[in-house]
Automatic annotation (TrEMBL):
Alphabetical keyword list: Amino-acid biosynthesis, Aminotransferase, Branched-chain amino acid biosynthesis, Pyridoxal phosphate, Transferase
Catalyzed reaction equations: L-leucine + 2-oxoglutarate = 4-methyl-2-oxopentanoate + L-glutamate; L-valine + 2-oxoglutarate = 3-methyl-2-oxobutanoate + L-glutamate; L-isoleucine + 2-oxoglutarate = (S)-3-methyl-2-oxopentanoate + L-glutamate
Protein name as catalogued: Branched-chain-amino-acid aminotransferase
UniProt EC number: 2.6.1.42
GO molecular function, one term: branched-chain-amino-acid transaminase activity
Keyword Protease (UniProt): no
Cofactor(s) needed by this chain: pyridoxal 5'-phosphate
Domain of life: Bacteria
Taxonomic source organism: Desulfoferula mesophila
Purpose: Acts on leucine, isoleucine and valine.
Residues recorded with modification N6-(pyridoxal phosphate)lysine: K197
PROSITE patterns reported for this sequence: AA_TRANSFER_CLASS_4
């Protein structure tokens, strides 16, 4: 399907940020966005690149009342050769379709949607920043647009993609964060929508995050909804622990988000012949290992922060230090390898990188 383009004249485009060391996260948007509609009987249609701006939406649009929405997050990078690269973009669209299924949203045609994504990035190529650690963040989203106050599956949707240059996700950068183990609130339960990237999961997490921030913690570590014992994940990251040489992450049992960074880290660790387990891990086991001096390191994984080392874990009023509050060796190695592959500095043995321009 041809993508229609309605582009701004060059003199109406915004100036690019001059200081790439101060980009922050998710506050600056490119000049253009991508839109595509769905209507029952008409399938996905009218793909178009248009100037970035407000969406016209009925106040009765189903998404505003019942949260029928899914989103994705991925990045385009300025490679060392000046080219523009993306990391496993097809995996994001495939995950989006799994989220779509869970939310009763019609699936997107992966190949075409991928082509449109590349087209948008190429159109905005000047917005891909160059400074190390920066990238162009891409946010594909689907919302239910039918105007109706009855709870039902929408017959109309809008798929849109907005983008903007970003720096480090956390103000700490690649420095260890302090995490707060949450026992009162839960993020998601098995059978719910925790494994879909859908808005309700994040709305549900805000109060716990606010309370943790007020106490001086960067992130909330979620425990399972049943026993409040097993480690689930952190905010917008999957969690890894290294205990006595074993690299452990929670299995994809239905309430955690199947991260693409998580999958990439598992693949790399197995490739390096490390002892890797996707298994249930309780907070008690983590703290026992810490007490015995066997908790070597802990880190979160996600597109926004890549690898985020954990310096301390706060549980029931006590702070437990991890890796002396420093960035552990595996966190370092994974960060260097992953960003090296993404920027074309290192070989890409798994075929993860796609050259866009
Ligand atoms: C997006 C997200 C992740 C990380 O997924 P990536 O594909 O690695 O970016 C982890 N947990 C949650 C809750 C998320 O929303």
């Amino acid at each position: 399907m041809e993508c229609r383009k309605e582009l701004l004249p060059a003199d109406s485009c915004k100036p690019k940020p001059t200081d790439e060391s101060k980009l922050g996260f998710g506050q600056i948007f490119c000049d253009h966005m991508f839109l595509m509609d769905y209507e029952k009987g008409k399938d996905w249609h009218d793909p178009r690149i248009v100037p970035y701006g407000p969406l016209a939406l009925s106040p009765a649009a189903l998404v505003l009342h019942y949260g029928q929405e899914v989103f994705e997050g991925l990045k385009a990078y300025r490679g060392v050769d000046g080219g523009i690269y993306m990391f496993r973009p097809q995996a994001n669209l495939e995950r989006m379709n799994r989220s779509n299924k869970r939310l009763c949203i019609p699936e997107l045609p992966v190949q075409e949607t991928l082509e449109h994504l590349f087209e948008l990035v190429k159109t905005e190529h000047e917005w891909v920043p160059t400074l190390e650690g920066t990238s162009l963040y891409i946010r594909p989203t689907v919302i239910a647009t039918e105007a109706c106050l009855g709870v039902k599956v929408s017959s109309k949707y809008l798929y849109f993609v907005i983008m903007g240059p970003v720096g480090a996700y956390y103000p700490e950068g690649f420095n260890p964060v302090r995490i707060y183990v949450e026992e009162n609130y839960v993020r998601a339960s098995v059978g719910g929508v925790g494994e879909a990237k859908t808005m309700g999961n994040y709305a549900a997490s805000l109060l716990a995050a606010e309370e943790a921030h007020a106490k001086g913690f960067t992130q909330v570590l979620w425990l399972d909804a049943c026993d409040r014992k097993s480690i689930e994940e952190v905010g917008t990251m999957n969690m890894f622990f290294v205990i006595d040489g074993e690299v452990i992450t929670s299995p994809l049992h239905g309430s955690i988000l199947p991260g693409i960074t998580r999958d990439s880290v598992l693949t790399m660790c197995r490739h390096w012949d490390l002892n890797v387990s996707e298994r249930k891990l309780t907070i008690d086991e983590v703290l026992e290992a810490q007490a015995a001096g066997k908790l070597e390191e802990a880190f979160g994984t996600g597109t926004a922060a890549v690898i985020s080392p954990v310096g301390s874990i706060h549980y029931r009023g006590t702070d437990y230090t991890v890796a002396d509050g420093q960035t552990g060796p595996l966190s370092h190695k994974l960060y260097d390898e992953l960003t090296g592959i993404q920027l074309g500095k290192r070989p890409d043995p798994f075929g993860w990188v796609v050259k866009v321009k």
